[in-house]
Design a protein that fits this description.
Rossmann fold; single chain; alpha/beta; five-stranded parallel sheet; 31% helix
Length: 199
């Protein structure tokens, strides 16, 4: 059953309605199935970005979810950040729990303190920090300390696949690398449209 567009990129798990795991979870009924979002589970991937790059962050989270990485935190996901939460405390929790931090660097974000603040927190806590360059910002534009970290300029399916292989190495070291995906891959097509959209 195809999910409605509004739920397309939510970090959710689809389970049968009869599942006992429904109890105590946030859920929304969709036909004969239920969509669960992981209220009590911290994310393994944290996406750091500024508001202007929200569309790319959303597309990236969806692309990763499409390829099996469901535990992705980014502040624009209303399923993962709730009204009334002290968001700085929640961000600290998620950064602490995450194994990989993807810092989105664009011409706008590199001039703002927020991404650097979160990247510094990742570095100090020994997280894998991957600078992801977008919107015309490239690896060559990175300055120290980021220039000393293997980064990605996310522009095409090859760089997106490189990101998937890197995540597999860091998060699933005992499994084989994922095979390349087709140009028609739905997750990639949506991410590509976000990358190519005007900021």
């Amino acid at each position: 059953m195809e999910l409605p567009r509004m739920l397309e990129w939510d970090s959710c798990l689809e389970v049968p309605v009869s599942s006992s795991s429904v109890r105590g979870c946030g859920w929304r009924a969709i036909g004969p199935r239920v969509i669960l979002h992981p209220l009590d589970r911290m994310s393994e991937i944290f996406i750091s970005y500024i508001h202007e790059d929200h569309a790319v962050a959303t597309g990236l989270a969806g692309f990763l979810g499409h390829h099996g990485y469901k535990d992705v935190f980014f502040t624009g996901n209303d399923w993962l950040l709730y009204a009334g939460e002290v968001w700085l405390a929640r961000i600290r929790q998620e950064l602490t729990a995450a194994k990989v931090v993807l810092s989105l660097f664009s011409p706008a974000s590199v001039t703002r303190p927020w991404v650097h603040f979160e990247a510094g927190a990742a570095w100090l806590t020994d997280k894998v920090l991957i600078p992801v360059c977008i919107r015309g910002f490239t690896i060559d534009d990175l300055r120290i300390p980021y220039s000393g970290i293997q980064a990605i300029t996310l522009t095409d399916s090859g760089s997106a696949y490189y990101l998937l292989r890197s995540l597999s190495k860091h998060l699933r070291p005992d499994t084989t690398a994922p095979p390349p995906f087709a140009q028609s891959d739905e997750g990639w097509r949506i991410l590509e449209s976000k990358l190519n959209a005007e900021s």
